[in-house]
Every structure is written in structure tokens, then in C-alpha cells.
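Protocol step 4 of 6: structure prediction from sequence.
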Amino acid sequence: MMSASITLLPLANRTKSMSRIDAVLFDLDGTLLDTAPDFHRIMVAIQTELGHPPVDYAHLRTGASDGSRAMFKLAYGDSLNEALLESLVDQFLTHYAQAPVVTGELFPGISELLEWLESESRPWGVVTNKPRHLSERVMEDLGLSNRCSVLICPEDVNQAKPSPEGLLLAAERLATEPQHCLYLGDHQRDITAGKHAGMLTLACSFGYLKPDEKATDWGADLIVERSDQLTHLIRSLTV
């Protein structure tokens, strides 16, 4: 019986798509990694240097999946002109590239999930819209570079998510059929990409959703509200 924080949506193709899971793919920010604390750390440091009031963490977190430009717009609202925005983004990216993982960490339960997948010889990978030089640094800082079987970034494809191109490329590199892959993400574009790739999709509502956003609107096969329930759920899908 599914718990209240795990939703299984009644899709017509579920029997076929859930017949076997050979590989698990993750979005990076907001799904595998809780990046928002580092985003907030860097933004507050920049704002403090400029004598600006620091952005509220809870407010910033809701926009953490949309990139640095969106987060600064969220923090400053209509008072932000284009020249200041470009300057702030440049400063942010410089700071972030130097130390992307300081206060952030894997979401609770993710480490256990990766260990279980590896013990079962099920490869896992990441398909993200984060540039490669940043993604590789993040994975290195987390100690996951040598454990991740495939890392797909925007530089690897013609179109980033919500296009399914990156997911299909990941499946190809893993020598796995897309229908036997599970893709986890915390944004509508993740689920759209996964569905168009023919993969089983899992919406992570513990990620960076906006206040008026509902993961139930994305059309995912599964929804999980707590990251520490992922191992139990995915194990139940693979027996």
C-alpha cells in the first residue's frame, strides 16, 4: 500500500513501462542535490558586498530550478535593471564555479538509494540542463564522478530539456531501452522530457516547486513528497 506521500497515477501504459527498470536517471539540482543552500550562500555574499538586503532563503528556494538570472529577478523584483542583472549573474557564476558544493548536500535518502542501485548492478546517471563544467565540478565535489554511469549536459545535445534528446542519449550510452529507464525530476520540463522519451517518470515534489505549483499537474507516473522514501519505492518497482 502506497503511503500518503507517494502517489501512483493511473496511466494506461503503466503495465508496459513498469515491467522492468534497468537504469535510473536523475535531474541534478532539486532532485539529486539540494543546491539551494549554496545558491543562497553565494547570493547573500554578493548582496552583502553591495550593501543590499539579503534574499530570504525560503523565497529563493522556490526559484532555484530556474537558474541564476531567474533567482536574482525573484530576489529584486522590478527594481533590477538589465545592466545590474548581468553584473550580478557574472559574479554569481564566478563564485559558484569556484565552490559549488559547500552548504548544499544530497537530499536525505539519496545516498542510500545510490548505494542500493550499485549493489543491484543497476546503473544510474544524471541528465541536467546545468553546463558541463559546473556539473562535473558538482559531481566531483560530491564524490560521485566515478560512480555515475552517464552524465548528459546541454553541450551533449542540440536541445536541452524539455526535449527528450538528452534522456534518449543517456539510454543509448547505457545500452538500455528508454522504456526500461526511470527518470526523476523536480520540474515540469523533467517530466515532459521523460514522457516524450518513453521512460517511466517520477516527480520529486520535495524539490524546488513554486508556491502555486503542483507536481500532480505534470502527468508523471509517480510522485514522491519525501526523498527518504525513494529507495523503498524504487525497490518495490524492481521486484
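Step 5 (inspection) to follow. The mean pLDDT is 92.
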